[in-house]
Amino acid sequence: MIRAAVLSAVSAPLVVSSIELPEPGPGQVRVRLAAAGVCHSDLSLSNGTLRQPVPAVLGHEGAGTVLSVGEGVTGVLPGDRVVLNWAPSCGSCHFCAELSEPWLCTEANAATTVPYARTRSGDELYPGLSVAAFAEETVVPERAVLPLPEGVPLEEAALLGCAMLTGYGAVHHSARVRTGESVAVFGVGGVGLATLQSARLAGAERIVAVDVSEKKEELARAAGATDFVAAGADPAATAKAVRAVTDGRRGADVAIECVGRAETIRAAWDSTRRGGRTTVVGVGSKDERVSFSALEVFHFARTLSGCVYGNCDPARDLPVLAGHVREGRLDLGALVTERIGLDEVGGAFEAMLAGRGGRSLIVF
Q1: pTM over 0.85
Q2: Which residues in the chain come in under a pLDDT of 70?
Q3: Would you call the peptide bond into 55 cis, given omega within 30 degrees of 0 as the criterion?
Q4: What pLDDT was estimated at residue 232?
Q5: Cα–Cα dist 358/158, whole Å
Q6: Which residues, other chains included, contact 345 with Cβ-Cβ below 8 Å and sequence gap of 6+?
Q7: For residue 20, what are the contacts with CB-CB under 8 A and spacing of at least 6?
Q8: Which pLDDT tens digit goes with each residue over 111-123?
Q9: Which of 62, 132, 234, 257 has its CA 20 to 30 A from that of 85?
């Protein structure tokens, strides 16, 4: 028996209880968690914004140590330090094999719908985003574990599993920020902080952080922001404030939206210059709508694009990020504003809803 935070039904509170976790079967790996980040996507899974069979153990951003492996596993051994990959690519579908776009793999979340454990009463449990990291231990497919390069602290390495890969990829793979460009980042949570650091790494000249909470300005500037704009209720006014900061170009070259709300997507679009690029990282509700007039689409010649997992190939990008961490160019610890125990995960959800802090990190 191990302890885990269980979501019994959509919109129900997480309850920490003991669950029965089987030994790994063929092609599976059992991992003891060192830490797990509490991401806004976990909140979206819990409230039904994203689909998730229940009851489930959420948590998809984690790192730990391999305890045991099932038959046929060759990539890792007991004792290896690993980062969990919530969207492992299959390598053989159209997106993986023909388009070289593993972040769009059709099988990436296949394990989400397969029960992996049981409650004490015998009910089947599903793994949130195939990972189930809000638990002392988990069992995942071999392709869902990535060996952690040396020189990266194991606890903080959890942030590599989602926040840092997503923020880095949004800057380098999706928006393709170039040296000297200006970048506006909407939303200063865990992913937003990673995006700010990555924009600085890319050589952006002006980096504008945008958030509804003015208390996040210090966090944003520490992550690389040169300017801070407090977002108001009017998206047009927020965009105007960003354009004023980058007046020489009449808007930012790039805007990266890390919130997933219609009004912030619209503000991000409006904040960019003619010919600018807007990348949407935040996961929004299917009921939210963003509208544009046909004339403005023509006139501004801007590009609007979605971004899944930072358009990253984790197997390729994780060693690159680890190198930046070792050399001090990226700071995983700076994303964490609170270290908590498993029993405090509900409070971390409340903090996200209130817009407080960056990443909460569950330390086991």
Answers
A1: yes
A2: 248
A3: yes
A4: 87
A5: 14
A6: 5, 14, 16, 38, 134, 360, 362
A7: 1, 117, 118, 119, 120
A8: 999 999 999 999 9
A9: 257
